[in-house]
Amino acid sequence: MARRKIVAGNWKMNKTPSEAVALAEELKPLVASDDVDVVFCVPAIDIIPVAEAVKGTNIAVGAENMYFEEKGAYTGEISPAMLVDAGVKYVVLGHSERREYFAETNETVNKKVLKAFEHGITPIMCCGESLEQREQGVTMDFIRQQVKVGLQNVTAEQAKTMVIAYEPIWAIGTGKTATTEQAQEVCAGIRACIAEVYDDATAEAIRIQYGGSVNAATAPELFAQADIDGGLVGGAALKPDFGKIVNYK
Ligand code: PGA
């Protein structure tokens, strides 16, 4: 069975609540699609108003992070139950910016992935190499470790429903998209890793996105690759172009 494409916008630390509602309203008609799952991953404070604004549309709301404890003395953190109650269906976990600036590790990402599943939130687990790692030829070793540790104790049934986003760090926010061949090669490598950890059926079911300077011009070729099931989009998700990316065909 063909995997359904999933295109998610990662708004990062952009848009106040009122600006977020205005953007959601602007994008709503542009991202209408029967074929592609569409997700707006927005700053925590924008989740409630954006969820309200997109009610009744094909757009799902996602968070950009989440804590791995249920509740308690964790000042500043947001729990999975809070996200669920606010209408969140997806959560981006282990984005390279969180790894770089907020000390996220494969181990904390794994705890978050497990906790998201406990609450019925679909994880979009990010992985990706630095330019240095690519040049050293260790891209796939590094990513296999991120994926394997990130998925520890995740069952095959759970893994089948989740999303992995391959985002080479050197392509994020740089305007330098990976070539179609580079993106396909790593996404195929991730799928092979899933087959090793689980089985072929799980590898066939899991959806793998490419992310890193995706735009309306590069999306069609990237999303046509055998192992690329859509994209995680930063900068271009804040513009009307996001509609073109969703409707890339
Ligand atoms: P970009 O960001 O599309 O602006 O490169 C992608 C991401 O970080 O998810």
Can you describe this structure?
With 249 residues, the chain is of the alpha/beta class. Helix 1 runs parallel beside helix 2 (47-53) and helix 7 packs across helix 9. It contains 12 helices and 8 strands. The radius of gyration is 17 Å and the shape is globular. The chain has one domain (5-246): TIM Barrel (Alpha-Beta Barrel), CATH 3.20.20. Strands 1-2-3-4-5-6-7-8 form an 8-stranded parallel barrel, surrounded by 5 helices. 2-phosphoglycolic acid is lined by residues 10, 167, 172-173, 211-214, 232-236.
Question: Quick recap of the structure?
Answer:
The chain has 249 residues and is an alpha/beta fold. It has helices at 17-27, 47-53, 80-86, 96-101, 106-118, 131-136, 139-150, 156-159, 180-197, 200-205, 219-223, 241-246; strands at 5-10, 36-42, 59-63, 88-93, 122-127, 163-166, 207-211, 230-233. The protein is built from twelve helices and eight strands.
Integer average pLDDT: 97
- How far is the N terminus from the C terminus? 19 Å
What characteristic shape results from the CA principal axes?
A: globular
The order of strands across the largest sheet is 1-2-3-4-5-6-7-8
Blueprint of the fold:
Layout: E1 5-10, H1 17-27, E2 36-42, H2 47-53, E3 59-63, H3 80-86, E4 88-93, H4 96-101, H5 106-118, E5 122-127, H6 131-136, H7 139-150, H8 156-159, E6 163-166, H9 180-197, H10 200-205, E7 207-211, H11 219-223, E8 230-233, H12 241-246
Parallel strand pairs: 1-2, 1-8, 2-3, 3-4, 4-5, 5-6, 6-7, 7-8
The protein binds 2-phosphoglycolic acid (PGA).
2-phosphoglycolic acid (PGA) binds at residues 10, 167, 172-173, 211-214, 232-236.
